[in-house]
Amino acid sequence: MSDDCIFCSIVDGDIPARTVAETDDVLAFLDANPLARGHTLVIPKAHHEHVGDLPADLSGAVFDVVAELTPRVQAAVDADGANVGINDGAAAGQEVPHVHVHIVPRFEGDGGAPIHAVAGERPDLDDDELDAVAEAIRE
Ligand code: 5GP
Ligand code: ZN
After folding, report:
1. Does the model's pTM come out above 0.85?
2. Is the sign of the CA dihedral 113, 53, 97, 63 positive or negative?
3. Which residues does the UniProt record annotate as the domain HIT (predicted)?
């Protein structure tokens, strides 16, 4: 629990939210400023800022709810698909510092873009550079 965290306040019931699913460790509720009908956020109830901060059992619990809920969200709003993603860190657009998974329903012809559109200019990496990046991640 973090004192000045909006999502901790939702977990504690101090700020109202439209809850759509709940387990012992995970809460899912509608985004207050939806990007699309049915835009849903899935959060661990415990306060962690980054996805990499989550203990394995909790990240598993969060993803279980995401996997179960995504088709239900789509069905509820008659969507054709969904983008599922996390803004991790301010540079990636994270505004609420309590890790949350966005489920954004998508509709044919809605004018949106795939998740590939979130990054800036694409780097032009040769094979050696790709090898080096892969090695750095493996280390
Ligand atoms: P971020 O940019 O951190 O990935 O996304 C934060 C999301 O939380 C935004 O989509 C925003 O609309 C949503 N949000 C911010 N404050 C509240 C709130 O008090 N209640 C709910 N339900 N959603 C919120
Ligand atoms: Zn929090």
Report:
1. yes
2. positive
3. 6-113
